[in-house]
Amino acid sequence: MHKIHDTIKEYPAMYRVTIYKTPIDLEKRKTKKQKITISQNDESLSVSVRRTRRTIQDYVHCNDFNLFVTFTFSPKKVNRYDLDMCYIKMQSFLERQRRKSRDFRYLIVPEKHKDGAIHFHALVASAPFTMKKTTVIQNNRRVYNVTSFRYGFTNAQHVDDDDKQKVANYIAKYITKDMVLISNRKRYWSSRNLRKPLKYHNCLYDIFGLSHKIDESTLVSSTDFNVTYEVPKYLL
Fold first, then answer.
1. pTM (2 d.p.)
2. Which candidate, 35, 2, 43, 52, places its Cα nearest to that of 188?
3. N or C: which end of the chain has fewer CB within 10 A?
């Protein structure tokens, strides 16, 4: 298979179908990657950022995250402007949680605030840490504090399936070229036990029978390069 005409990603509740207006030639793509020059590096980084955002969307739609947590470091405990220190402290916290539960799952994106301070935004499931209810209400949801986070402050809120797309968009926006270049580290952290969508090529008119659901009602985006549809499984 040298050319890809369409790509189908299968999630627990839907299929995402991307139809390419010009088929992707795999052999040419490999050659192009080998010939990337310094002048092309910025565009290459932009493509990589978009790909990372899609990966985050995939994780969100394939995993039943039930908490959205923002971790903020206290200046009394951690130099929150020190990237290395913040990363080390966050990794230490995650390691303690993994030892408590093998089922612990997470997807975390770092954010560099306008003043240079580092925050972490996380989606988690089967979290073993304890939480304390606060009197704060945000977005019509109760805010909790993760008491086992020793390095600062937390804002934890329950999320459900109706929040998935909103939360995916929110966490993906922190994937930026500037953050990648500044930190020179991973753009996101994910536990190894996260599920990923199944991916197929050139199957639109074969095994799935999705072609009769490809219309305006399932259209989600259209660009100069491709058209994307999302088909809920209950429609099939």
1. 0.83
2. 52
3. N
The pLDDT tens digits of the residues spanning 108-154 come to: 998 888 888 999 999 999 999 999 999 999 988 999 999 999 999 99
Mention every residue, 6+ apart, whose C-beta is less than 8 A from residue 226.
Answer: 18, 19, 20, 21
d(CA 24, CA 50): 17
Contact predicate 165/92, CB 8 Å? no
How far, in Å, CA of 17 to CA of 78, rounded?
45
Strand partners, 14: 232
Give CA angle at 8 (6, 12), nearest 5°: 170
Q: Which alpha helices (H) appear in the chain, and where do they start and end?
A: 26-34, 41-62, 83-100, 164-172, 177-183
Contact between 218 and 230 under an 8 Å Cβ cutoff? The reply is yes
Count other Cβ atoms within 10 Å, centred on residue 81.
Answer: 15
Please tell me the distance from the alpha carbon of residue 150 to that of residue 161, in angstroms, as a whole number.
30
Integer angstrom CA distances of residue 152 from 94, 123, 143, 145, 179: 15, 18, 16, 10, 22
Sheet with 118-125: list strands edge to edge: 131-138, 141-146, 152-158, 67-73, 118-125, 105-112, 189-190
Chain segment 37-63, per-residue pLDDT in tens: 444 566 677 777 888 888 999 999 999
3-state SS class at 205: coil
